[in-house]
Amino acid sequence: MALDEHFQRYFEALDRSRGEDRCYLCRRTPADVKSFFGFDEDGTPIAAEEHEIEDVVLEDLDVMSYHGLRPVCAVCQLNYDAIFLLGEQEILRRVLSEVEEQRERLWPPKRHDH
User: What's the distance, CA 59 to chain centroid?
Assistant: First the structure.
């Protein structure tokens, strides 16, 4: 894909997500995702000498999927994949339902100290 097409898709995705370059699910920025995996924004490992990984480089710097309705980061995609590999799709649906419909039940009651 040509560079201009790549940028065009990126800007279209930003338009769909109201100009926010963040994961729709966890709100991480691309820099946050790279840091989560142990890399600086340019793809070089953080504390490489300490971990003896000087030759490791994050070659694919695309850590956010911009082709869908909203951007989703690689961390959330891995979590989603793990849920499905464990066969927990129905549990995920139930958790989402609880969060949407039973929100008050999920949190401890507020204490009223006077």
Answer: 18
